[in-house]
Design goal:
Radius of gyration: 15 Å
Order of helices and strands: HEEEEHEEEEEHHH
Strand content: 15-25%
Structural class: alpha/beta
Largest sheet: 5 strands, mixed
Oligomer: single chain
Helix content: 25-40%
Number of domains: 1
Strand order of the largest sheet: 5-4-6-9-7
Distance between the termini: 32 Å
CATH class: Alpha Beta
Number of helices: 5
Amino acid sequence: MLLCLLSAPLVASAHYVTFGGKWYTNNVYFTYTQSTSDNYLSVVRDSAQSWNSTSVNFLFYDGGVSNAGPIWLLDQSYGATGWSAITENFNSFGTTCWACTYYKSKIQINDTYMLTATGPWKHYVIAHELGHTLGLDHANPSHLMSNDGTAGTVTAPMQHDIDGGTSIYGTK
């Protein structure tokens, strides 16, 4: 996964970094397994709403329990991997890609860490991963798309994150 990120063409500003890809549409629904629904549904809905309430011209919709949504969230105990969740974006052929047109994303939530995480940390992780589904990469510290380990107090997109999103999808 890291090799993909390093080889993907990145678009950067002073405060955000994009992968160079975006969704084929500005309205995408997310689905989840029953286990994910039981453990994280309120966090997923709140995190999607935190993005929906910004000026980014993109909307996440709740598609319910299914294995077939454009954005699919699933949870499992992946072990001591060092990550709480990880996202992959896919092109129309089902190939993992970053600088392409997205047709599907998969967010894997690692129960090893997340089942015992605090509420704010869960919100940070899910909102952060939804940012990856939009095409945003890790960026400067102290906002949602940072990856510095101290951002757990940030639970919704901040202005730098919104700027990155509007650079891809425009403004509502």
